[in-house]
Amino acid sequence: MSPMRLIILIGAAVAAIAAAFLVRGLMQPQTAIEQPVVQEREVSETHVLVAKRDLLVGDLLSPDDFEWAAWPENNIVSGYKTEENDADAINELSGSVVRIPIYAEEPILPQKLVMKGETGFMAALLKPGMRAISVEISTESASGGFILPDDRVDVILTYQAQVAMAEAVIDRPITETILKNVRVLAIDQVFYQGDSESASQIGNTATLEVTPEEAELIAHSQRLGTLSLSLRPWSDAGDTGSRGARTDLLRGGSSPGNGVTIYRNGRATAGLGGS
């Protein structure tokens, strides 16, 4: 037999053996891949007091701002209010003010709130950039006592002015609105009515939330005459227009004591000595 034919036969034999091993491997059952076993474990839960919405600094809280939410017992942190141990927590925290922002569904921590009567309660109640100033009131100058904390009012100034009428100069009272849409923070020491059954609040002072310049205007106006508060309806409490601040009074413009105010056709103009 020639060498070439011998080589061909050997190659064919090797190929046949390899094919036999390949067919045998394909015919053997495949080893199944083991699936990981998922173990379920029951987790104990309790109910924790959380914020129902995002709470911003200065927000005055009511019962509608809280809710109970399921929470794993192993994740309870010291300070959390649980329904099991603090069932009346919603009523206790209502009327407090937010000191540090709290996000929706975040557990309530007392450290983030200022409670009624605590030091800093009024400062926490103020919106950023605003100031608190008190004005003297009476039943007559505060809508018969029906102005309550969180209402909106207009501030009216009444003062005596010299008015030129024909050839005579007489003294007569002048009344004008010096500030509009001002938030009432408190009546005396009452910050928040809550669920009070009282429909009126008689007090000696009303604390208003104003800008720094408006605070100067009110302080100046109290020296010029008498301030009265006019209650605004809730329908326009959100009006973001001009507050109509008579800041010209701070600069001496047409303020009483600067001369004679002359009235022509029902309109006041600066007279003798006026600016």
Automatic annotation (TrEMBL):
Q: Where is the SAF domain?
A: 46-114
Location of region: Disordered: 236-263
The cross-references to Pfam families, in alphabetical order and at most eight, read: RcpC, SAF
What this protein is called in its record is: Pilus assembly protein CpaB
Q: What is the lineage of its organism?
A: Bacteria, Pseudomonadati, Pseudomonadota, Alphaproteobacteria, Hyphomonadales
